[in-house]
Amino acid sequence: MKHTAGQRAWKQIKRYRALFFMVLPALTYLVINNYLPMFGVVIAFKDYNYREGILGSDWIGFKNFEYLFKTTDAYIITRNTILYNGFFILLNTVLAVTVAILLNEIKHKFFSRLYQSVILLPYLISMVIVGYLGLSMLNVENGFINHHILPMLGIDPISWYSESKYWPYILTIVNVWKNIGYLCIIFLAAIIGIDHEYYEAATIDGASRWMQVRKITIPLIMPTITIMSLLAIGRIFYSDFGLFYQVPLNSGPLQPTTDVIDTYVYRGLVTLGDIGMSSAAGLYQSLVGFILVIVANYAVARRNRDQALF
Amino acid sequence: MKNAKRVTLTVLVLMLTWVLAACGDNSGSNNGGAANNGGGEDKGDPTELTMAFISFGNMPDLELVQNEMNKITTAKINATVKLMPISISAWTQQMNLLMAGSEQLDLIVTSTLMNYSSQVAKGQLLPMNDLLEQYGEGIKSVLSPEILNATKIDGEVYGIPSTRDMAADYGVVIRKDLIDKYKVDVTQIKTFADLEPVLKLIKDGEPGVAPLVQQNQTQTVTEVMVGADYDVLGDKFGVLEDAGQGELKVVNYFESAKYKEALAVVRRWFEAGYIMKDISTSQETGPSLVKAGKAAGYVANMKPGFEVQESRNSGREMVGIRLTEPMTSTTNITSFMLSIAKNTIDENKAMQLLDLLYSDADLMNLLTNGIEGKHYVKQDDGLIAKPEGVTDTGYMLNQWEVGNNFLGHVWAGEDPQIWDKMKAFNEASIKSKALGFTFNADSVKTEIAAVTNVLNQYRVGLETGTLDPEKNLTDFNAKLKAAGLTKIIEEKQKQLDEWAKSN
Amino acid sequence: MKASPIQQALIHLFFVLAACACLFPFLLLFMASLTDQNVIVRDGYSLLPSKFSLEAYTYLLNDSSTLVRSYGITILVTIIGTAAGLAISSLIAYPLSRKDMPLRGVLSFIVFFTLLFNGGLVPTYLLYTEVFHLKNTLLALIVPGLLTNGFFILLIRTFFSTSIPVPVIESAFIDGASEFKIFYRIVLPLSLPIMATIGLMLMIAYWNDWYNGLIYVTDTKLFSLQNVLNRMLSDIQFLQTNSFGSNQSETTANIPLDTIRMAMAAIGIIPIMIAYPFFQKYFVKGLTIGAVKG
């Protein structure tokens, strides 16, 4: 039997029509929710005028992007953004995977679940409140650390909110504290999904727990680790605004180590409220992330086609 | 069998979609219904006008008041009003979104503090000169041409200021019990320097109480000290010295002599412990610090009746010490106005409603104080008070945002002559020569965004004394210049010169 | 199978310490809501405040209609949003996980691209308000967050493609099972852990969402719990950093006190903590593959 190309394609579609049907709801949603508004990126290149609307406003080239590179701080905010987020991706992945593996090792289901619940708690607290709690710890006069911890160690009180050198550590701790409980659930799900037969076979062969973790658990959850990392790399120019703005309480002297692109854009535009300039910032952040993730994805795909994003 | 399962799933998906859609329809039609109440198909029906204003808390009884207001507006101008409170933190964003869309919006509160000039430049507001001629009798009888002029941009009025304090004098408020305890003669305190011995007395005699704080992180001690020395021309990027009494020369505020002097004083006070240690990161307001017994007083931008207001809000009797003459710049007038939005369905009706807010005392009292008998009761002396036994009345509008406040009843506890005093205060104030000039930042917004970031890094620290000005002020100015402050000042000078020529 | 008793003890020790680090701030928050307002302003937060007060909770109870309504809206939005989001995410994730699916790469890219690029606030707002008229509707709180930009789809896809053995699907297909049957008879039961995970995450996302409310809802009757809380928090922050001249103290007079904000935050967290064990039930390996085959 001979088939034309058209017939072959039709056969394919028929064979997979159920699967295409499954794709449909989400695809329709994404087209409407995400792709239709994308024509709006032109706002980044326009002097938006409310009377003229998006299409009628004047083109102004790259003028909306200028403020991002205008100050001497442009370098600092880019550096802070990349260093913090790059480090967070690494640290959060390692810690979340570790915690997930440890949770999986616990014999009593009750305790395992109790720990899971409790370490998820910080994720549920609004960052503004975290900022208040941080203040109650770090307050100069009556903060918990200056009042109780430092005197015990014989150290003089520290003016936490005006000394920028401590903040890379503080922000890292808050980030870990807040996010690990949430992230580890994803890895825990992946670990639970591993077929028990692998472990049973390894136990019979006399492999130690550590061996099993290294040779079975980690390789088998590698696809999840990879995808989580790739997705995070794509958003490396976006920061957790709450962490960098609310937790340092917008304190000026801390800006050298706490200012990232998101906070810079927020502070610069909060009084202007210019939507052209905010779109420009968003586009810049997306583009850089996009380029990075394409490169990273290419590297992953060369090693293992199946683990790549697309 | 195979098909049956597939059908089940399809139905499931469809049902889900339907549930979602139904939900939307429900609330959608509720909303539509509310909107139609006023609109109606009949031509004789009153026009429904939407009025957006800034809210600072819940207003459960909003609809009751609105309904009462509509009785008046329907009779007088055949229009109804729909009140639209938007919370302050969402305001700028929500205004931009509403204006980008086509949702009906007729009257909105505008303010120099919230982008008035940029709203005009971006086409969000309608010019009002002609409308004012046609329907603005009430407004013109209340607001002098001088005041209306101050709202003009390129010769057109875009907003009608509410009547309130249109000048500012600066000073401090301090707990009365402490003033009495240390037998301070407040009449002898004439300058900020005279305050120092008082602060010392409190510091030495009241452990655990900070002698001086500020209202919030923006109204810093330094800013209040030099408040009457400058016309800040909207923002602080380029100002006029001598309260705008000299020549119209725009200078850098952060390099000027008085600013520098004030920073040194504030730094000394901070180091001596007169200013609260945590002041630059405190999340509490001045009044709440006083209420909790943690602070003795705070610096403030004042007005007639300020002591009563602050005593109410800080829960203790406060004494006001005024240390400057009242001064008026454009900002004092344009800080709260009502404008007609580009999304209006009927600008004529909107203007008529606006005029009523300046001429109809009953309407204005409903809007600002609520319904008589429910939200307030009239006393024999003509003052009003909360009904007996009621603490939270369910309606509370920050009246200074809108309309002619001088039409409103005076609350018991306030000075019965408060409005007359306010008028006298406004008239007696020193007027800046640049009164009426509004800076349009649109052409230098790149620089504004960059400079704002630098400002945020240093200002609060320096102006509260937390940072040492010796070292940081130079850095601050160098960074401001690198971010483009000079260009902003030049642009401002250019616009000011043009303005001076045509006025 | 599992680690030795000593290792077990060490693991428990680790988690007890971690749990303390996570519980302490929450306790602090809870105690703050029970502290007298003036004590908070004067002395800051403390686990054992010098003066207790139930003022915050009586305030919230006095205005219980707001609280109950916003709670109801949050619950409704969370349930519908989670169910719908999970349904359409897993439906698309399955074909994308199938290596033989035509156009798999293109479709994955289409999903992934939405994670990085969006039209920005204004065009999205115009679409929802001008075309779909969702402003001030419950739907505006549900629809924009349904897929959280494809993130969850990619996570589910990865789980499907790593944890569901291809031979199982193939043999089922040869046995004449339809794709839909394979999906919900074989794939879903084997994927309970990821379904529970994504369900939980969607639930948290909906429960904690205030952004859509901020953008699409101005009618206070439709405010969710987090909207109410967030409005208080951002208002006070705005007033801290912006000057209202002589009216400054009037602007803050009506904003609820610290203790009330803390109480709101606390009662906003508790329901999720109650719901979590329900999801944890599914954090076990699904039916074994043998059972599916048989």
Describe this structure in words.
The complex is a heterotrimer of chains A (310), B (503) and C (294). Chain A is 71% helix and 1% strand. Chain A has 310 residues and is mainly alpha-helical. Chain A has a two-stranded antiparallel sheet with strand order 1-2. Chain A has 15 helices and 2 strands. The mean pLDDT of chain A is 90. Chain A is flat. Chain B has 503 residues and is of the alpha/beta class. Chain B has 2 domains: 44-165 and 328-439, Periplasmic binding protein-like II (D-Maltodextrin-Binding Protein, domain 2), CATH 3.40.190.10; 169-325, D-Maltodextrin-Binding Protein, domain 2, CATH 3.40.190.10. Chain B has helices spanning 2-39, 62-77, 91-100, 116-121, 129-135, 137-142, 145-150, 176-181, 195-205, 221-225, 257-271, 286-291, 306-314, 330-334, 347-359, 361-369, 418-428, 445-463, 469-482, 485-502; strands spanning 47-55, 79-87, 107-110, 152-153, 156-157, 160-161, 169-175, 213-214, 297-302, 318-322, 327-328, 337-340, 377-378, 384-385, 430-431. In chain B, strands 2-1-3-12-6 form a 5-stranded mixed sheet. In chain B, a hairpin with a 2-residue loop joins strand 4 (152-153) and strand 5 (156-157). In chain B, helix 18 packs antiparallel against helix 19. The termini of chain B are far apart. With 294 residues, chain C is mostly helical. Chain C contains 16 helices and no strands. Chain C has helices at residues 5-33, 37-43, 55-62, 64-97, 104-116, 121-131, 139-142, 151-163, 166-174, 179-190, 192-208, 211-216, 225-241, 248-253, 258-280, 289-293. The longest helix of chain C is centred in the N-terminal third of the chain and has 34 residues, at 64-97. Chain C is globular. At the A-C interface, helix 2, helix 5, helix 6, helix 7 and helix 9 of A face helix 1, helix 4, helix 5, helix 6 and helix 8 of C. Chain B: InterPro entries: Bact_solute-bd_prot1, DUF3502, SBP. Chain B: Residues 434-501 form the DUF3502 domain. Chain B: It comes from Paenibacillus phyllosphaerae. Chain B: Residues 1-21 form the signal peptide.
